[in-house]
Structure formats: structure tokens, C-alpha cells
Amino acid sequence: MEGNKKAFYFLLTPVLIWLVLLIIIPHIDLFVSSFKAENDAGTLVWSLENYIEFFRDSIYWRTFLNTAMYAIGVTLLAFVVTFPIAFYLTKVVSKKYASFLTLLLLIPLWIGELVTIYGWVIILGDHGVINESLKWLGIIDTPIKLLYTDLSMTIGLLYMSMLFMIIPVMTTLESLDDSLIEAASDLGASKWTIIRRIVIPHSMPGIINGAIIVFMLVIGDYVAPNILGGKSSLWFTEQIYNQFLSTFNWNEGAAFGFLLLMLSSAVIWLALKLSGQKLDKVGQ
Amino acid sequence: MRKMMLVGVSALTLTTGVLSAQDTLRIITWKGYTPKALVKKFEAETGIKLKITYSNNEEMIAKLRATRGGGFDLAQPSQDRISFVQKKFPIYLPMDYSKINTKQIIPSMLAAVKKNSGVDGKGYAVPFCYGTTGLIINKKAAPEAGDWSDLWNPKYAGKISYRLKRPLLIGAAFGMGKDPFALYGDKKAYAALIEEVTQKLIATKKMVKNYWTSADTQKANMTSGDVVVESGWDGIGWQLHKSNPDIDFVAPKSGALGWIDTYAIPAKSKNIEGAYKFINFMLKPENAAFFTNKEGYGTASNGAEKFLKAEIKDNFARSFTKADIDNIKWHPPVPAGFESIESKALERIKAAK
């Protein structure tokens, strides 16, 4: 027992060092600096100015609202797109192929977001794979504008976040006893009823779990809106970036960072309340 | 995350810097400013190994600010972005002009940079190259275009592009017949002018095809023929002209915007001697001419002209008449706090439907 404890602390130390040095300390530093602002003389003083600025100027809270609405939309879309896939992989296809297919799904994660996003640029561009193929088939003469639109941005966001919805949903679906579906079917329930009354309620914790991750990923993403987005794709993260790099106002940027954290947490809390789910159950 | 990475990167460079401070020179610069052939030549001549990091003005300032001037031995900020930063966060060392071979630098440019980068009477930079921001135009499709105001000319609706950054606001203001640089001393009036420009660009946003974000998208816009008028750098316009003579850089009637990129030494530079050696090396006429022949940007080197290719001289002659040159609006040093006015304006334009 004594030896076990030693080993435990021995293994814990690097994790703690990593957490404290690279996550906790910088966050405390950012949090403190978010409450400092320059006065007219140009010296830093304690102030709530950075937080007030967010609500005072509509360009900030409107962009945040836009980003949040968009993130909710992408989350719903991720559910609609991935639920049939998850269902197919866990309930329809044989176990042998299922693990191979799941592995295929993971490949985009190995490549890294930036590369996959540039992959979409090549696919969707005016002279990209889709437009050239359609031209070759004689369906269109002039390229359709796919890249730098809301559509291309949505595809990019969906593609990079989809997996985080599939995996938790698959986990909960696996624990669903097939005999429940069979019994419902024997009792005369239609396919739609089975999905609505049995499959979805059972996988709800997985869905909510996936939704939280997807929502957080999308609302905090910087790359996809910037590279794939169109003329009006101002994302809240870009405003944080601008505060740090264009206006050199790190204090304001820090405040925006914490506002993003707090407000997106609030959205999740609200979603949990509305769906009647509990966070500790979702985390299982 | 960004901060975390900064800490990691600077810790890494710190340790490697201690090991061999005098044999390496860490430069943070723009892409294209350190041609491979010149890097090899410098390393062979001096035995100093170069470590090159590509960046831009904003990142350069942010990185040097995070390390309080450490992590790099030499930087290449634009001349208008030095003094206000230096006043607030001392990230550079004053330039010791006695160590610079000033004979090989165009005197008027050296004097201007010394003055514009100055804080408390001390200069902080040496000019390296210059260029202008103006218009890249497809002369076949838009033969009459030639001013900033053509960026909202209904004639070219749907075939217009620009980069949503501060030079656009300045150029657009000139295109509206105003002089933003004259208002650099009056923050309120400047903010009002930028507001006016913002309204103009929002009202005409539907005419814009896209906002380009990099040299690559800037080029793709023109080569695909999707765009006929766009804001752009002279070097890029001339590169495009080489492959398609219909496309060229045009100095806007109300004035091209002139920029000068410089050398400045970060406050915690570990190889100051090496930095001076490199500056003197790069401004040597034959080396400076090699850079200009390759990238197309003008050089601050005095005497490089006789090494320049004929096509480079042609570029300047084609795009700039004598009057155009006199009309170049050189960026004065940006006053503190102006960036937040511009940044908010740019966000407003991007957020507009």
C-alpha cells in the first residue's frame, strides 16, 4: 500500500507540474490582467473597463451572439449527420468491419486541422475538384462559388468536429441492448417510433456529451472561419486575436478570452437545463 | 494556448542561444527577405549560422513584447511601427549608427527612418527595402481604373477585392479626397474620418468579390480573372505582369502608400556584433541588388542600381511617372492608440452583411 502511494505521487508529479506551469499559472496571469486597463495617462490600473467594453460596443456582443448561434447550428448538424453513422457502426454492420470503419473515421484527426482545412480549399475552390468535375461532366460552364462562403465554412467546422460527436454516441449506443429494439418491433412499433422512443432517449447522455464538445470546439475555432469563411465570417476568436495582435491590447484580449469561456459555459448550462440532463451523468 | 506556445518557443531559443550565442544569428523577418543564396554567402563569409523565422509586423511586435525583446538577435519591422511600440515596451536597442556602413545606404532614406523610428532623439532602425501599396489592375478588363476610389466603382462590381487591414482604410481615405496622415495629430478627427471610410466600405461591400488574405490569394484572384481591380503590393503586381502582360501594378492617382521595412535590434539580442555584420552585408550593393532582382521590391542600398536587371527598372518606369513618385504617401509613424480605432472599424466592415 505504502509503495503504491509513492508510485501514485511519482506519476502524479509530472502531470501536476504540467498543469500548474502551463495551464493554471498562465490562466491566473491572464485573469488578473483582464481586470487591468489603461487610464488616460497611459498607466495600467485596476478596472472593469475591459468587461464593460464588451457590452458597450455592439460589434463585440453581436459577434459573440452570431458565433454562438452558428456553433449551435453546427452542433445540431453534426448530430443529424453523425447519428445514422454511429447507429450503422454499432447496430447494423458486423463487429469485424465496425472497428476498421471506426479507424477510418479517425484518420482526419491524425492529419491536423490546418491541413484538412487546406484540403477543403483544394476541393471547393473555383478550379477545385468539385467544380472541375462538374465542368468535365458538362453540368456547368462557369464554376459555382463554393469556397469562401458560409457553406464552405460550415463544411470545415463540421468536418473537424464531427468525430467528437460520433464517438460518445457510439459508446452509449453500444450499451443499448438489441433485444429492446426487437421487443419494440415485435410489439408493432414503427422504425421511427423505435428511434424516437428507445434509441435516442437511451443515447441522450452520449449526444449531450458530444454536443458539448462540438459546441466548444466550434465556438473556439479560429482556423476554419478564417480560411474557409466568406466576406462576413467574423468569428469571436478573431476579435480576441485582433486584441492581442492588431491593437496590442492584451488586457482586453484576456477579458474577451474569459468572456468566451464564461458565456459558452452559460450556453452549455442552459442546454443541460432545457434537456433535463445532468453534467455528472453526461461525463460518464 | 498561444501564450503557452510562446513560452515554450522562447525557452527553447533561450537554451540554444546560450550554447552558441556568437556563432548564430536569430532573425525574425518577412518571407523573401533572406534569399537562400545570400544566406549561404553570409554564412561562408562570417562563419555565423543564421536561424530565420518568418513573421509580419503584428506578430513581430507581439513576440518581442512577450519576451521583452528576447528570443531574436535581429528583427525587420516596418519603419512606422517602431517608435510607438518602443515608447511603451522597450523591446529594441538604440541603433549604433557608427557600426553601420552608412555610405552604402541612400542618405535621405536613412535620415527619414532614423527620425521616424526615433524615441528621445535616438534612432532605432536602418532601412532595408521599400515598396508601395496601390492597385493591381487587369488593364484589358478595366482600362480606366487607376484610383483608390475604383475599389467602390459600380463599373467593376463583383470583380473587386482588397485586404481588410489598415492600409486599406488609409488608401480609401485618400480615395475619398481626404488626407488621413494629416490627422495623425488629432485622434478625434482621425476617428471621425475612419468612421466615414467605414460607412463607405460597408455601403459598397456587396461589390466586393472577396477579401484577400495572403500573397497567394491576391495572385489567384487576378490570374483566375475573377477580379479585375484589387488593392495590392507593387512587387506582387509586377510578378503577375511577368506571366500576364494585361495585369500590372498601378500607382493610384490619389497616391500610392509607401512603406519602408527596416532592421532593428531587439533589446535582449545575444549577438549584436553579428546583427551589425548582417545589416552591412545585406545592404552591400551587389547583395541588395540580388534581393531586389529576385523579389522586385526597391532597395535602400546606395549604388545597387547598376546591378539591377533591366526588367526591374522597367517595372518602376511603367508604374510610376515622375508625378506618381512625388505623390507617394510615406507612412508616418503610427501614433499610440490608433490601432484600436482601425481594428474596430475593420471588424465592423467584416461583420456587416
Could you explain how this protein is built, in words?
- The complex is a heterodimer of chains A (284) and B (353).
- Chain A is 77% helix and 2% strand.
- Chain A is globular, with a radius of gyration of 23 Å.
- The model of chain A has no long low-confidence stretch (mean pLDDT 90).
- In chain A, strand 1 and strand 2 form a beta hairpin.
- Chain A has a two-stranded antiparallel ribbon with strand order 1-2.
- Chain A has a single domain (57-282), classed as Orthogonal Bundle (MetI-like fold).
- Chain A has helices at residues 2-33, 49-56, 58-92, 95-111, 113-124, 129-136, 150-161, 163-174, 178-186, 191-219, 223-228, 236-245, 250-275, 279-282, and strands at residues 36-38, 44-46.
- Chain A contains 14 helices and two strands; from the N terminus they run H-E-E-H-H-H-H-H-H-H-H-H-H-H-H-H.
- By secondary structure, chain A is mainly α.
- In chain B, strand 1 (24-29), helix 2 (36-46) and strand 2 form a beta-alpha-beta unit.
- Chain B is globular, with a radius of gyration of 20 Å.
- In chain B, strands 5, 6, 7, 8, 9, 10, 12 and 13 form an eight-stranded mixed beta sheet that branches. In chain B, strands 2-1-3 form a three-stranded parallel beta sheet.
- Chain B has 14 helices and 13 strands.
- Chain B folds into two domains: 2-130 and 259-321, D-Maltodextrin-Binding Protein, domain 2, CATH 3.40.190; 131-257 and 328-351, Periplasmic binding protein-like II (D-Maltodextrin-Binding Protein, domain 2, 3-Layer(aba) Sandwich), CATH 3.40.190.
- By secondary structure, chain B is an alpha/beta fold.
- Chain B has helices at residues 2-19, 36-46, 57-66, 83-88, 107-116, 166-175, 187-203, 215-223, 234-243, 272-282, 285-295, 310-319, 322-326, 338-351; strands at residues 24-29, 49-54, 74-75, 92-93, 126-138, 160-162, 208-211, 229-233, 247-250, 257-263, 265-266, 298-299, 329-330.
- Classes of the chains: A mainly alpha (284), B alpha/beta (353).
- Chains A and B meet through helix 1, helix 3 and helix 12 of A and helix 1, helix 3, strand 7 and helix 14 of B.
